[in-house]
Each structure stands twice: as C-alpha cells, then as structure tokens.
Amino acid sequence: MLSGTADPEAMAASAPYVAAPATEPLVCHGAELLQIVYQIDAHARQEVLPPALHPVNPPVITVTVLRAAESDAGPFTLAETRVVCRSGARSRGFHVSGFVDGEEAARLLALRWGYRTRPAAVALRLRYHGAAAEVRDAGRLLLDARLLDPVPLAPADLQFTDSMHLARTPRGNRLIQVERAYDVTAAQRGRPALAAFEAAGWGEPRLRPSHPISAVSLTGDVVFRPVRYLCRADVSASEGTERIDHA
C-alpha cells in the first residue's frame, strides 16, 4: 500500500496548536452545505500526504462550503479543501486548508479541532436551480464552485468521510480525527463545475483539479463531534492511533 511521503515536521510548522481537543460538540442548526469532488493530477498524490495516510486511485479532492446561520459559535461560513485518502483501511479526507467568514468560529475550530484557516469572504447560495459558492481574499477570487442541473437526492443516500487534521499538540504532532454528524432535511446532486480554484491560495499549489466527479448540496443540522482519536503522522494508523478518554 502506498503511503504519503511529506515530512510531518515541515507540514506541522504552520499547523494550529491544539492544547485540548474538543470535548463538547459544535452544533449548527439549519445549515447549508455544498461539496464538490474533483480528480487531481496524480504526480503529487503521495507528496501532499504525511506517512500515516495512504493515497487513493484516482487521486481526488473535496471542496466543501458550510454555511451555519445559527451555531454555538455564532453565524459563520467555512470553506475547506481535503485530499481523499485512507487511514488504515478507512476512507478519510486530509484537511489541507480553509477559509472562515466568522471570527469566533474560526478561533474555536482551530483551538479544538485543528482547522487550518484564514479569514476571507466566503459565500454560499443554495437555490432550486443549483448551488454556488465563492471565496474571496482581499478581492482575489480563490474559489468559484457550482452545482448544476440538480435533481433531488434521498438523505439516506448521502455519506461523508471523516477528516484528518494535522496539528501541534502536547503529545507532539498529531492527526486529529474530525467527525461531523448530519441530520439532513433536503439534498440534491448535480453536475460539478469549478470556474475558479487557485491552488496556491489554498496553500498547496500541487492540487490541480482535472476532471469533475460529483456535487451534492444539503440543508439540515450539522454537528462537529467531540474528538475521539488522535494519530501520529509519521506511522500507520495501526501503530499510531491514540484514543482520547473524555471521562
């Protein structure tokens, strides 16, 4: 099985410091979400992952935008990019970076779940004829993602993978397993379109979207769950997984 070849120490140099992973959930009522999945160039699929994670074939990324009009951290909109991978045999997404429109939420997501984000203008619009999301940083367009030609999707047909966030912790550099729960009230699938994706602006210029795969949107409640697992970034999940006891 192929493994990532990136240096965890170098990757963690700019990662958030998480002194105490989340012990309480972050609940977002009536949230909206758009997720776009694209295949990327294969040449760097190992170079963008730490050794604990394994690339998939074909290599793909997810671009997700979540708008929470009501949450425990106030209203916010989060855009993030992940590289789809495996941790052991389980499908995961390695968190590359993100942007948050909402100062309190950005602080909480970084301190408790290890989200690597910057402030930006993040917009998400869900309509009956599709969905659109944009990220702008000082007027610079970093993302223009769309769901076109939507058709209804049964909520039971949706499945999302957990994320792995590289962070600095008191135990050393660790991958935080970030889990979200979804109570979906309505969902659509459609044709994905990326009119703009500035990879360098997302902190990883080697991510070059090449072929569209899927797009889904939803409305419902989204919950960031308390953290249950950490994993060393330099060894496999079978050797480096650490369970967190919240007792």
What's the layout of helices and strands?
Elements: H1 8-12, E1 26-40, E2 54-55, E3 60-68, E4 70-71, E5 76-87, E6 90-101, H2 103-113, E7 117-119, E8 121-127, E9 130-137, E10 140-152, E11 162-169, E12 172-178, E13 180-197, E14 209-224, E15 229-232, H3 237-240, E16 241-243
Parallel strand pairs: 6-7, 6-11
Antiparallel strand pairs: 1-3, 1-4, 1-14, 2-5, 3-5, 5-6, 8-9, 9-10, 10-13, 11-12, 12-15, 13-14, 15-16
How would you characterize this protein structure?
With 247 residues, this protein is mainly beta. It has 3 helices and 16 strands. It has helices at 8-12, 103-113, 237-240, and strands spanning 26-40, 54-55, 60-68, 70-71, 76-87, 90-101, 117-119, 121-127, 130-137, 140-152, 162-169, 172-178, 180-197, 209-224, 229-232, 241-243. It has a 16-stranded mixed beta sheet that branches. Strand 11 (162-169) and strand 12 form a beta hairpin. The longest helix has 11 residues, at 103-113. The radius of gyration is 17 Å and the shape is globular. The termini are far apart. The relative contact order is 0.23.
